[in-house]
Amino acid sequence: MIIVPTAMIIDDSRAMRLILRRIVTQLGFEVHEAGNGKEALDLLETVDPMPQVALIDWNMPVMNGLEFVTAVRSQERYRQMTLMMVTTESEHGQIVRALAAGAHEYVIKPFTPEAIAEKLALLGLVPSGIV
Amino acid sequence: MSAPTTDDLHAITEQVWLSYLDPEGVNPFLPSPDAPPSPHVIAAVSVTGAWEGHVVMTFSERAAELSSAALLGMGDDEVTPDDIADAVGELVNVIGGNVKSLLPDGSLLSLPHVVTGESAGNTRWPAAVEVCRLQGSWQDEKIAISVWTSKSAGEGA
Predict the structure, then answer these.
(1) Residues in B touching A60 (Cβ below 8 Å)
(2) Is B81 helix (H, G, I), strand (E, B) or coil?
(3) 4-aspartylphosphate-modified residues are where (chain A) (predicted)?
(4) pTM value?
(5) Residues in chain B closer than 8 A to A22 (CB atoms)
């Protein structure tokens, strides 16, 4: 059985979700989308298998990206999921907060497709030869 | 840390265009002295905290359609008002976030706010003064990007 890697894209902008969807789909991922952290937590209850990686905006209504990271890291069952912030927040203190809360990687908008691919490759989530 | 300048806005805008609207680098945003004609589409984010103000993008209606279509990978005759609000909101969010990186630590960025139609022409920031402005065109349509600081914050600086 071929296991297709899965990514969850969490961003309140449909345009940004579309841009990220194009990038990770080309890298071989299937994609789930959510418009904020709460929607993403609800979606995680229903999807199987669990996504290998979540790409997470910071500034979102209802539940922001940092709150989502904190909520995910508080649950043992999501321990294997890689968390990557993809955000305009570039202040050093904010990056430290996200990493301290449990994010593995941090990408600042605007980004290129190559930057996302390289980060996912560094995390071991993209098969060699694709990037 | 000094206030953002027009050169800063130009550098940020070039980067955003290369990432999202002109990845091949063949159709860049070109500075020009002309302001966007009415009617406008206005997208803004507010900065609060250590620095108080706004980052505002003003599009001609056609520029907003073209930008949204490019960002969403759609035909420019396919974009809906909701598509435009989402896409120009994300553009100002990214540009605003990069402007915020030039401001003192401890500043917070709001969610984007988009105004279209007649309301856009009435949009004012009476309690703010303009810090810098970049005007230009993309695909022959006018776009302006400006940074405003609240008068009280500016007087205290």
Answers:
(1) 111
(2) helix
(3) 57
(4) 0.91
(5) 73
